[in-house]
UniProtKB/TrEMBL annotation:
It comes from Haloarcula limicola. Residues 1-118 form the Thioredoxin domain. This is Thioredoxin. GO terms for cellular component: cytoplasm. The keyword Ion transport does not apply. Coiled coil: none annotated. The keyword Disulfide bond applies. CDD domains: TRX_family.
Length: 118
């Protein structure tokens, strides 16, 4: 899968979550954006569905780019990051993994994590 251009014409991160397929796509997305929130999820996961509107709001309202990684379709990628439960949210800043949280999180908690690095 080809990753869509990561920034808009004003140099901002995408306003919607971007589906990621594979390690190369995630690496490229992280390299192109200063702060990336990667949401490792599964379609069958109830808590993931509860978290989805929050993740969409964060993509629209913060400087973070949001990556969506389906763990069922990307098992090697999930294993590479030690994802054992969903939802798992991994925050990247400056190309490096800086935070990881597991389970449903409040929008305020995730926003404060993002703002620490944005």
């Amino acid at each position: 899968m080809t990753v869509e251009p990561s920034t808009d014409s004003n140099g901002r991160s995408p306003a919607e979550p971007v589906a990621i397929d594979g390690q190369a796509a995630l690496d490229e997305f992280v390299a192109e954006n200063d702060v990336v929130l990667a949401d490792f999820y599964a379609d069958w996961c109830g808590p993931c569905k509860m978290l989805e509107p929050t993740v969409e709001r964060l993509a629209a309202d913060t400087d973070a780019a949001v990556a969506k990684v389906d763990v069922d379709a990307n098992q090697p990628l999930a294993q590479a990051y030690g994802v054992r439960g969903v939802p798992t949210l991994i925050l990247f800043a400056g190309g490096e993994k800086v935070e990881e949280v597991v389970g449903v999180q409040s929008g305020d908690r995730l926003r404060s994590l993002i703002e620490r690095y944005a």
